[in-house]
Structures are given as structure tokens and as C-alpha cells.
Design a protein that fits this description.
Acts as a defensive agent. Recognizes blood group fucosylated oligosaccharides including A, B, H and Lewis B-type antigens. Does not recognize Lewis A antigen and has low affinity for monovalent haptens. Keywords: Calcium, Disulfide bond, Lectin, Metal-binding, Signal. It comes from Pelodiscus sinensis. This protein has a domain at 74-208: Jelly Rolls. The protein has 225 residues and is mainly β. The protein is built from no helices and 15 strands. It has strands spanning 2-4, 10-13, 36-38, 74-76, 81-82, 85-86, 107-108, 112-113, 116-133, 148-152, 164-167, 176-192, 197-198, 201-202, 204-208. The two termini are 25 Å apart. The strands form five sheets. Strands 4, 9, 10, 11, 12 and 15 form a six-stranded antiparallel beta sheet that branches. It has a three-stranded antiparallel beta sheet with strand order 2-1-3, with no helix packed on it.
């Protein structure tokens, strides 16, 4: 796990790619901190690091990155309906980024236990990052707190047990959460809120197929005397 602050209060993400010579890029989505901790939890292990860089801006999509989710078949645990119509899963992959639920730009489930949303990319891809757009209005931002992004090749249990890319922690209105998946291979991308009853509200989901690139204006901070 990669944590910000010495008290391990915020988890940026988890390293999943252990191929020799590989680079793991973990996005922290603009969170503030002075200390960065890397820890291997729950077991006795050697921790070997050949280089660690900490950049001062959030992870940016590389030039020419392809959105694999755009217009793809999506499904969700249930569908909320009101006077604006049915908030179907496909709204989250329709290419509309305004984040306005009342204008039909967002998907929304009913109040479900462990609500989920899944998109089928059509075939297996190497996934670099998943970008989630939040609602612009001041309603309900806390709903996405702790939502997990999972990528894999299994549709069993709606992909909820596929490998974990990361967790959404920024739930401010209109915010954008960028979760780096470090080239995890998968056909299905699932967003699930574990261990509680909740609504799952997504205003746009993008799945990118190229490596997560450092920001053009990023400043390297991890240089200790």
C-alpha cells in the first residue's frame, strides 16, 4: 500500500505489477500530505525499492489515450427512476461530462446493498487508468466514498472480485477521481461500494488504455538530504 501522512490516514493505492523492471504509477488524486509511506501489510516480507518519485500534481492521461468505455454496454445493480427518466448505466459512458443529474447525464442505482456498476470493453485490454466524474451539484457526494474500481476478465458476481485498481476518496461536487491501474489486464471494469447500503451515482466513467503519464508541470518532491 502507498499511504499519505505518517498516520496512514489515506491510502493512495496498491502496487499490483511486480514484473522485473516494471514501473508502478499510483495516483493520489491531488491529496495533500507531507509524508509518503510504502508498507506491505499483514505478512513478514523484505521491502525492496529501487526508486521512488513523488510528483506534485495528479496523474494525467497520456497524449492519444483511448477511452475504451465510450458507448460500451454497461449494467448496474438496479436503476433509479424519477421525473427525468431512468438513470440507466449507459449514461455513465455516453461522453457527456457536465455532471448534471437533472439533465440526464448520470447513472444512478436504487438504494442497494453493495451497489455495483459494470462496463464490458468488448475484449481484453491493458488498462492504465479509470477516470470517474462526480456530480456537479451539492447533492450526495458522500455516496461515492470508498467505492472500489476493479478490473479483470471475470463477470462472476459482476466482477466484484476482480483485481482492485484503487478506491475513490475525493467526493467533492464536480471532482474527478483518477485511479491508475498500472496496466492490469481486463475486459470488465466494475465500480462497487462494499459493505454498506448505498446509492451508486456516476456522471461519467472513462477507461484508458495507455500508461499513466506524469503531469507535464509535475515537480519531483522526493529528494531528501
Amino acid at each position: 500500500f502507498v499511504f499519505l501522512t505518517s498516520a496512514l490516514l489515506f491510502s493512495c493505492g496498491t502496487i499490483t505489477n511486480t514484473v522485473p523492471g516494471s514501473l508502478s504509477t499510483v495516483c493520489c488524486n491531488g491529496w495533500q500530505g507531507r509524508y509518503v509511506t510504502i508498507t506491505i501489510p499483514g505478512r513478514a516480507e523484505h521491502l525492496t525499492l529501487c526508486e521512488v518519485e513523488v510528483l506534485s500534481q495528479s496523474c494525467a492521461p497520456p497524449p492519444g489515450a483511448q477511452n475504451l468505455a465510450l458507448g460500451r454496454l454497461a449494467n448496474q445493480s438496479s436503476t433509479f427512476e424519477d421525473e427525468t427518466g431512468k438513470a440507466v448505466a449507459g449514461r455513465a459512458v455516453d461522453g457527456k461530462h457536465d455532471g448534471k443529474f437533472e439533465q440526464g447525464s448520470c447513472s444512478l442505482t436504487k438504494l442497494d446493498i453493495e451497489p455495483w456498476w459494470i462496463v464490458d470493453l468488448g475484449r481484453r485490454h491493458s488498462i492504465s487508468m479509470v477516470i470517474v466524474k462526480h456530480r456537479e451539484d451539492k447533492c450526495c457526494g458522500e455516496r461515492l466514498q470508498g467505492a472500489q474500481i476493479r478490473v479483470g476478465v471475470s463477470r462472476m458476481n459482476h466482477g466484484k472480485h476482480n483485481p482492485l485498481c484503487g478506491t475513490i476518496t475525493d467526493t467533492r461536487p464536480g471532482s474527478i477521481s483518477t485511479i491508475c491501474c498500472n496496466r492490469l489486464a481486463g475486459r470488465y471494469v466494475t465500480i462497487v461500494i462494499p459493505d454498506r447500503e448505498e446509492y451508486l451515482n456516476l456522471c461519467e466513467v472513462e477507461v484508458l488504455s495507455q500508461g499513466c503519464a506524469p503531469p507535464l508541470m509535475g515537480k519531483e518532491l522526493a529528494q531528501w538530504e
